[in-house]
Amino acid sequence: MTAPLPTGPADHAERALCVLAHPDDVDFGSAGTVATWTSAGTEVTYCIVTDGDAGGFDETPREQMGPLRRDEQRAAAAAVGVTDVRFLGYPDGRLELTLDLRRDISRVIRQVRPQRVLTSSPERWYERIGASHPDHMTVGESTLRAVYPDARNPFAFPELLADEDLEAWTVSEVWLGASPRADHAVDVTDVVELKFAALKSHVTQVGHMDDVEGFVSGWMAQTARRFGLPAGRLAEAFHVVHTA
Fold first, then answer.
1. Nearest by Cα to 17 from 115, 104, 123
2. E runs forming strands in the chain
3. What number is the average pLDDT over the span 65-83?
4. Which GO terms describe its molecular function (predicted)?
5. 86 forms bridges with which residues in the sheet?
6. At what angle do helices 62-79 and 192-200 cross, to 10 degrees?
7. Taking 80 as the threshold, does the pLDDT of residue 6 lie above it?
């Protein structure tokens, strides 16, 4: 008889992998949560699929934007205790659901061997259309396909084992950000200054904003109220999917 799936996320993960489309995606939606993980001893790796070269709000030459944003993401990661940041180098704004992308994410999963993966929801959220960037949805779906079945199947992408000696790995749970069916909130009030430091590292993306802290705090306060947290608390929310 099959054991029932857990009803909530694991209390602790030894290793976690965050797979997002662009530099800054993890920081807007999840940097507070990541800070709680690293402070609890979880080793966190970032896998950023593009360099974000189609972003920005000034006249920075396009050939300079990608390197700038990679540096910003490394600085933002360091602010919340993450030192392992990897970039896949796919073109910003042109992501498609391909076998190559599934293979490349599967490779990182097999390298890192995380118990927990955080990514963006593949579902469109019609009430918050800005959360449903096509790149976000593509990365979310590609990551879920990499988690199940690709990374755990030794016969999927056999070159990963034959040529790179990367054995199959099963991820236990996936946390989906910007999901219309979020079922778990993380209180990030006590680490919010770390999240703000991470966000402010993305100068090319937030330098034009007068009050990025107030803007993001408004989101998080609304999330906290939605999940019944006490007044004055701030939260990030996820749909937690158990896969093992």
1. 115
2. 15-20, 43-50, 84-90, 116-120, 173-177, 184-187, 235-242
3. 96
4. hydrolase activity
5. 47
6. 160
7. no
Q: Is the dihedral of CA 31, 239, 226, 40 positive or negative?
A: negative
pLDDT, average across residues 42-64:
87
Instruction: Give dist(CA 226, CA 146) in Å, integer.
Output: 31
The residues pairing with 185 across neighbouring beta strands, listed in sequence order, are: 237
- Number of domains composing the chain: 1
When mean pLDDT is compared across 5-19, 66-80, 226-240, the lowest value belongs to: 5-19
d(C-alpha 110, C-alpha 160), whole Å = 9
Q: Give the mean pLDDT of 161-165.
A: 97
Neighbour count for residue 211 (Cβ, 10 Å) = 9
Asked if 29 and 178 count as a contact pair (C-beta separation under 8 A), the reply is yes
- Asked if residue 6 belongs to a domain, the reply is no
Per-position DSSP letters for 87-117, written without gaps between them = EEEEPTT-----HHHHHHHHHHHHHH--SEE
In a domain, 154, yes or no: yes
How many beta carbons lie within 10 A of that of residue 158, not counting itself?
10
> Is residue 2 domain-resident?
no
Residue pair 197/82 in contact by the 8 Å Cβ criterion: no
Report the predicted TM-score, pTM, of the whole model to 2 decimal places: 0.96
CA separation for the pair 121, 223 (Å, rounded): 16
4 belongs to a structural domain: no
On the question of pLDDT at 3 being above 70, the answer is: no
Which amino acid does the sequence have at 43? E
Across 163-172, average pLDDT: 98
Query: Residue 96's domain is classified under what CATH number?
Result: 3.40.50.10320
Mean pLDDT in residue range 231-236:
98
pLDDT at 1 exceeding the cut of 60: no
